[in-house]
Amino acid sequence: MPIPINTSRSVIDEKTLAKEKEVIANEINWYLTTQGPVVVEELITKLKGALTYIHFKNEANVADSLTLAVTSSNCDTLKGFITVNDIYVTKGELSIKFPHYNRGNVVKTTFSPKEPHCLYQLQDVYNHIHKIIEILEHYKLKTYTLEQLNDLIKQTIMFLKKIKFIMSQKEENYVFPYRCNPKNFTPELPSDFVVEFYINMSNIVVAIFNISSSHSSQHQFSSKIIGRVKTIKSGNHLSNNKINPSNEIIVECPSPNLLKFNKLMNDIYDIANNCQYKLKIFLEKQ
Length: 286
Known about the structure:
One of its GO terms (cellular component) is RAVE complex. By secondary structure, the chain is α+β, with helices and mostly antiparallel strands. The chain is 42% helix and 26% strand. The protein contains five helices and eleven strands. Strands 1, 2, 3, 4, 5 and 6 form a six-stranded antiparallel β-sheet that branches. A three-stranded antiparallel β-sheet has the order 7-8-11. A hairpin with a 2-residue loop joins strand 9 (220-225) and strand 10. The longest helix has 44 residues, at 8-51. The chain is elongated, with a radius of gyration of 28 Å.
């Protein structure tokens, strides 16, 4: 006598599997229809808000200027202030004191350029944000396919990572050959002085170099930077110029605008990253 085969279990499994697929499909469709467009719109709104903290203008408006103190903590090697408008340093006053220069006497100078000094990192960041907004607005839809939204968010995160890298790295492309012209200082700085302005996350950095070929490139100096001592080996900077700084002072000036900008950019990154995580789960369930 043949043994009866129970097929009810496989039938139940197939029905359960079909039901699960239907639930997943509905969940994905709900997200792509109701949440995807909201995420894209939120990203656009917040990115436009971020631009207000580094708004690029052709002409500086004095009313929008921000004056930052330039001080090295518990040290008198560099004191003064700089005035920043949008992505420009428009003026400043500096008192510079190198222990091995001019018998340790202070060098006082005023920075008053005919043309504002551009912080090229911020200009690059501005261009990147505009590009993200342009892409998001171009592909802003009432609903998306899973692949469309995933590609859009993936591209957005790629640009956001580039922006974070630009804000955290001092590259010669952003500094040299765009160093401050000695003729923009009154009185004019000595020929062996180099002044740089650049960005390090939420800080505008003022770097002063006293260049001298007579000192050993292995000589070390220390400068106080926002409550901590930074010891610097001569020759680590300006290497592209094939010159060795005999002394340097680097001071970070916290910028309230950049602090707000970076906080908002972190929020934007979190929104995009959370969306990408959900899309990854959906793609795996498909």
